[in-house]
Design goal:
alpha+beta, seven-stranded mixed sheet
Length: 164
């Protein structure tokens, strides 16, 4: 029995020390490299922090003047989306995006996008119920300014607060 345990441990050690196969670099147009520490990730998080703190100016600071912002199928300006997002604070307390994950992709075609996954939380001011929604967004950059963005989430439960 002990011999079998030792042989298993030795085999595991041998296989764990093998060199992995060579990674193939994909040089196609929509491949590239990804960074979890690029400064655009911090800018993305500053946008979210400003949203949570009802800071319109802070939210707008990452956007180019003519930036386009898509929320699900609606197309808005950065100012319009800022106003719409901040309106949620009239109906919800303690709005937070938790479980944030931002990574920036540098594509071989020169495009730069930050991908952002989050869990939105807000407490309904009328009912006291906590609403939790998962969401995803991408932000397309020109230098250090966002020129286009897309935010996707299921608004069904969120929108109910506007009709209560």
């Amino acid at each position: 029995m002990k011999r079998n345990i030792y042989l298993t441990l030795i085999a595991a050690l041998i296989f764990s020390c093998q060199t992995p196969k060579e990674v193939q670099i994909d040089d196609s147009e929509w491949s590239g490299t990804i960074s979890a520490s690029d400064e655009r990730n911090a800018l993305m998080n500053s946008f979210t922090d400003a949203y949570e703190n009802k800071d319109a100016e802070g939210m707008l600071s990452i956007f180019a003047e003519d930036a386009i912002f898509h929320v699900n199928d609606a197309q808005l300006t950065a100012a319009e989306v800022t106003e719409a997002f901040l309106q949620g604070h009239e109906y919800f307390d303690d709005i937070k995006n938790i479980d944030r994950n931002a990574t920036t992709m540098f594509y071989n075609n020169g495009s730069i996008y930050t991908n952002y996954w989050y869990t939105w939380n807000g407490t309904n001011k009328k009912t006291g119920e906590l609403l939790v929604l998962r969401g995803y967004a991408w932000f397309k950059w020109d230098g250090l300014k966002v020129v286009e963005s897309y935010n996707a989430f299921d608004p069904t439960e969120y929108n109910k607060v506007f009709t209560e």
